[in-house]
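Case study 2.
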Amino acid sequence: MNRTTLSLIAGVTALAAITGVAALTTPDASGTNTAKAAAELPVERSSLVCPAPSTSDLAETTYTSFTPVTKGTGSEGKAELRSGALESGGATDAKGEKADATDKAGKPVLAAKEPGTPVTEDVSGSDSPALIGSADGKFAPGWTVQESTEVAAGTGRGLQGVNCTAPDTEFWFPGASTAADRTDYVHLTNPDDSAAVVDIELYGKDGALEATAGEEYTVPPRSDDPILLSTLTGEKQENVTVHVSVRSGRVGASVQALDDKLGGDWLAASADPAGSLVVPGIPKDAKAVRLVAFTPGDTDADLKVRLASPSGEITPAGNETLHVKAGMTSAVDLGDVMRGEPGSLVLTPTDHAVPVVAAVRVVRGEGAKQETAFIPASRPIAARATVVDNRAKGTTLSLTAPSRSAEVKVTASAGSEGGTASSKTYTIKSGTTQDVEIPVPNGLKGTYALTVETVSGGPVYGARTLAVTSGGVPAFTVQTLPDDRGMVAVPEADEDLSVLQK
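Prediction:
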């Protein structure tokens, strides 16, 4: 075989390991696939962006970074998060002012030490910047970062948590609002050296909202732009779906939803539009649950609404189905549907499948001491998923197997300040949701990561609730556990490559 052919095959294999290409095949003249079965290899690079956490001077934010131990990686690598303002005079901060990068560019805000052990960094006040990060080598597969912010008072008071996201080109956020008592921002974080051009569309109960801005919005290089939704339209609507699509470049996107009376939290993007969806991990003490759904196509969707409880699937009384009109945001208040038990919403088509996106708003507490969080529809844990910033008290891990029973392994990592990892295996019965007993690390000091791996059975979905009490308010935040996509299938070349020698 000549040298050029060898280089080509090596290059394709490396590209697959880096970018996450699912499979590559080489058909012969008859159309038969002659490639060998693909091997699962760890990804070699990952990137994440974290939005600016808060504009409140009372905000206290913790960043947590973690990579699970992955077989097959080398001994080298790093994972670092830096301020978005890496180039002096080039980027702007959240207030639209020129960012001073004199010290910020000198060293990482947060750097990993070793896979299997989380690292944390605390910041205070309203001037904390967005963070842009990358991981390679042994730190890349499954790299997970979260920012958790406690706000003592004011609009959005309570606990706000968000997983830092991989840059992408499209996001859907059902559950946002332009109502008078809400202050919702869509944060667009551009990790690259060139500007990104983005369109922002808002959809209410009657369709697209009349927009005053949002088309061809330019996000400067290495910056985080929080855009107040009420500045994009004059219409005031309680339930809105936000669609972010990127014309050029890429961004990370999250919605920060702040309520005058009910606290606030981050609304992460829904799973991609699909005919069936699962919204996992609704807390058992939820006082009110609102389901918001949207279909981006031209066809109405009719969905069966089921609640997967610890004892099996049940139908919420009076809300057996949900009709979602094409291009319009639909919402239904399920009330006190949990009745003291954890659960997950399972949405399936009543007849033919129409792609939809969905999320729920959850309210806990009583009277003036209520707090809000959001849970989007999530991807399943295909192989492995991780959630960080778990604490000795106030952490709940919820797992659901909507279609078939499944066995999963849950590992609690070493603590950020000490302790040793601990694992336990669980069986989640078909159609149920279980709040599992977490295997807390031995001798725990600090916070820890939870990694869930599928062992056998059907698909599993997960969510983690983190709860704290602040001034009598039951503050909380919920993060879903989509698959970390830390492994990629790379096919082996056929032994007979004589055709390439010609």
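The chain is about 5% helix and 50% strand.
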